[in-house]
Amino acid sequence: MAEDGVLDSRAARGSGSRRASPAAALGQPCAGAHGKRHRLADNRFRAILWARHVKLWYQSLSHNAPANPYGMVLEKIIASVADRGTRLHLQGVARSAGIGQHYRLLEHHDTEEVIGNAIRAQREGYDAFLIGNVSDAGMREAREQVDIPVLGLGETCMHLACMMGARFGLVAISERWIPRLMENAARYGLERQLAGIESMRTSPVDLKKGLVDPDHRRELLAQFTAAASRLLARGAEVVIPAGGEVVVFTIDERMYEIDGAPIVNGIVELVKMGETAVRLKALTGRFISKRGAYAAPSGDLLGRVRAFYGAETYPCAR
User: Fold this and answer.
1) Which secondary-structure segment (H or E) carries 309?
2) Residue whose C-alpha is closest to residue 261's, from 179, 119, 166, 131
3) CA distance 240 to 25
4) Are 36 and 47 a contacting pair, CB within 8 Å?
5) Where are the alpha helices (DSSP H) in 26-177?
6) Sequential pLDDT tens for the chain (318 residues)
7) d(Cα 19, Cα 12) in Å, to the nearest integer?
8) Rounded to 5 degrees, what angle do the CA atoms 84, 85, 89 make?
9) Of residues 121, 130, 173, the one with CA closest to residue 153
10) Taking Cα atoms as reference points, which of 38, 36, 18 lies closest to residue 28?
11) ∠ at Cα 60 (58, 61), nearest 5°?
12) Dist. CA 77–CA 26, nearest whole Å
């Protein structure tokens, strides 16, 4: 097998001059050159080759990322954890301030831009849209608008945490974030798995100081460790840092567990799950359900919506 998961052409051939089928190369049963199973294997083989090159749009809610200290560090991290062949675009918010997503009005301003960027990402050929904020602002609306996978950092971390342990806990940057995090956990059906939420004593402005001041960063990491220890005492088996800069600090310090409990460093998990979602869609042709919660308007209602809001609204709806 060659690099990047590409099947070596020599390995895909038999001992003679006849070339082995894609199904045989993948270790799958083959029903003959004209069989349905053979055609299915051919399609899967082409999908796997296609999925080697993944384009991900990473949507930060930081203002003008990556042209700020947090954005520059974030850009390095997402590039370092992506597979070879994955192309990542980091985009911040430009028209909104990118602060205070735990306040409804401020989140509203960010969300409008996030939704527009999801539509733009699909139009420009990106394979998945990743929302890199624990609030998951705009995630549900974006799923309603586009066909490509849309993943939110908060939802991704919480569901993955449930695969790592029976109960998880969240470390918020301040007490003001706690109601919002509890609301999201309930929306995702994970109230019983949530052991609790502990908070640090910091703020977005204070966290930015940790990006340039090593001593202050150590103080912030000490606050995080203390909060994580309190969660473990409450029964958490997995810890999720719920703040972008805190996640960056833990990754930079290679803090991936505490007292045997995994730390879900959400930026890493979001990128890897984005790649996985793209490959799943390449193999199966589906990812986001368009029945129920994420279904778009259709028929006469769709026509009226587009007449009022513009032809690009619900670009994938019919």
Assistant:
1) helix 299-309
2) 166
3) 40
4) no
5) 36-50, 69-81, 104-123, 139-145, 153-164
6) 333 333 232 333 333 333 333 333 333 333 444 455 555 555 655 555 555 689 999 999 988 888 888 999 999 999 999 999 999 999 999 887 667 666 778 888 888 999 999 999 999 999 999 999 999 999 999 999 999 999 999 999 999 999 999 999 999 999 999 999 999 999 999 999 999 999 999 988 899 999 999 999 999 999 999 999 999 999 999 999 999 999 999 999 999 999 999 999 999 999 999 999 999 999 999 999 999 999 999 999 999 999 999 988 999 888
7) 7
8) 105
9) 130
10) 38
11) 155
12) 32
Q: Which residue has the tokens 């003008």?
A: 64
Which is nearest to 250 in space by CA: 218, 202, 216, 213?
218
Token code pair at residue 118? 């999801």
Q: Are 231 and 196 in contact (CB under 8 A)?
A: yes
E strand or H helix at 54: strand 54-63
Q: Residue with structure tokens 């470390």?
A: 171
| Both structure tokens of 210 | 């940790």
Task: Return the C-alpha torsion angle 199, 200, 202, 206, nearest 10.
Answer: -130
- Give, as one character, the DSSP assignment of residue 175: G
pTM: 0.82
- Token readout for 29 is 């049963």
Q: Which two tokens stand for residue 165?
A: 């342990």
- Residue-wise burial string across 61-74, b where 16 or more C-beta atoms lie within 10 A, e elsewhere: bbbebbebbbbebb
Task: Please give the C-alpha separations between residue 56 and each of 49, 78, 97, 156, 263, in angstroms, as whole numbers.
Answer: 17, 10, 24, 16, 24
Exposure of 192 by Cβ count < 10 A (0-12 exposed, 13-18 middle, 19+ buried)? Answer: exposed
